[in-house]
Amino acid sequence: MYRRSVLLAKKAGFDGIELSCSGHANKRTDAYGGSVDNRCRFILELVDKVSKDFGGPEFIGVKICPTDTLNDSMVTFDEMQETYTYLIKALVDRKVGFITICRRGADIGIETELSSSRPEGFLLPPGYDPVLDFGGLIKFPGSTTVLMVNQDYGIEKANQLVKEGKIDLLQIGRPFIYNPDLVTRIRKGVPFAKNDRGGSVYYGPYRTPDKNYNDWPSATA
């Protein structure tokens, strides 16, 4: 399935592909479960395979979300650090084109529609930011892998981090939905609109096909 998707993307003229690698829960007892290297085996084998299909690892990106709380993905802080230190180093050794670190679930001092509390035993250090923690494993002299970041960044903050050499690229997801004029807002310095419809916004089917999809207002100035 993955290989076919990659081949179709290449046939369609894609410059590269991004594999979304989120979720930690794993009760397998075979070669893909148990130890950290076993639990990382699937994504690493997949990267190796699709790199050959697409023409090289530089065309492959991997998105990770170490602090995620969705889809049974929450783990202890120590396990998270052990797992993602191993995985990131293995991906950089393979010279993948980019790694995207998503901050969903981290306590970065910003309340959003996706904010959620972590239960006892799964708490993070106050103000913990996975980008600042793991970024140095990706951005260092001699590394060919680009660091992309995601989740609740303002444009000014992202530009600052780029100038400081801490990140390379910003990936914008949800704001593109409720800011149909997002690029124009960035160019003109207009603040982003906020999602005022809550965290359970889905895209149909509704009586009106465009509800919650392309019915968001543009800036008036």
Automatic annotation (TrEMBL):
SUPFAM superfamilies: FMN-linked oxidoreductases
All residue ranges annotated as the NADH:flavin oxidoreductase/NADH oxidase N-terminal domain in the record: 6-191
InterPro entries: Aldolase_TIM, OxRdtase_FMN_N, Oye-like
Entry superkingdom: Eukaryota
PANTHER family attached to this UniProt entry: NADH OXIDOREDUCTASE-RELATED, NADPH DEHYDROGENASE 2-RELATED
Protein name: NADH:flavin oxidoreductase/NADH oxidase N-terminal domain-containing protein
The species this protein was found in: Exophiala sideris
Organism phylogeny: Eukaryota, Fungi, Dikarya, Ascomycota, Pezizomycotina
